[in-house]
Amino acid sequence: MKTILHKANTRGHASFGWLNSYHSFSFGNYHNPERMHFGALRVLNDDSVQQGMGFSKHPHENMEIVSIPLYGDLHHKDSTGRDEIIRQHDVQIMSAGSGIAHSERNANNDKEVKFLQLWVLPKEKDIEPRYEQKTFRPEDRLNKVLTVVAPDNDKAVRINQDAWFSLVNASKGFATTYQIHKEGNGVYAFILKGNVTINDQALEPRDGLGIWETSSITIQADTDAEILLIEVPMKIQGV
Q1: What b/e readout covers 60-83, taking b as 16+ CB neighbours within 10 angstroms?
Q2: Nearest-angstrom CA–CA distance, 199 and 147
């Protein structure tokens, strides 16, 4: 088993007034050659966007882009004509495929929006762009590992990769074992709230822990906590 620990205070940071963003991996002006990716996970940005502001229309291709609002609502528009509001407890995926342009803005004029943006390298390139979002209620992941992104689960949003994202809302004392879905995959655990111990490693809010070359990991909630588990292939062609 191999591990890598990314403490919250070691992340890259960018502040533009309207945007406050923390980068777990190299992104924009933050470049760290030792933190380019975790397997197929290329980007994990922890963003806060001020009222009515956002990212203007810009292109992507051959990337699986997942957005998870933590507080507030996002307004999504893209070049396929899609015009959606992504709300807290929703998970959205956009398979950029052969090419798509989109904008993401704070849909609220009275509060900021906080959301995670994650990029995963795709399994198949140049597919037709696609979009999907679903709502996952907090009570459905209370003391339970709830799969929200998967290549093979109709209850989750579908990703063009052998990758699985799961959310856990854990009460203090909750313990579980997470089983890796596919040999060769690793898990990047990102702590949203509370204190957690994973495989004997104590973690605090916004810490990230990558684990690979194992078939399972153990999770113990030391306080009430929220956890995002990101399982991805560790070997990707060209990476």
Answers
A1: bebbbbbbbbbebbbbbebeeeee
A2: 20
Instruction: State pLDDT tens for residues 3-15.
Output: 999 999 999 999 9
**153 contact partners, CB below 8 Å, separation of at least 6:** 147
Task: Read off the tokens for 208.
Answer: 């990230």
In this structure, what token pair is assigned to residue 144? 């339970």
Residue limits of CATH 2.60.120.10 in the chain: 12-135, 138-233
pTM above 0.85, yes or no: yes
Superfamily for 12-135? Jelly Rolls (2.60.120.10)
On the 0-12 / 13-18 / 19+ scale of CB atoms within 10 A, 103 is: middle
Structure tokens, 176: 């579980």
Dist. CA 64–CA 42, nearest whole Å: 10
CB-based contact 19:49 (threshold 8 Å): yes
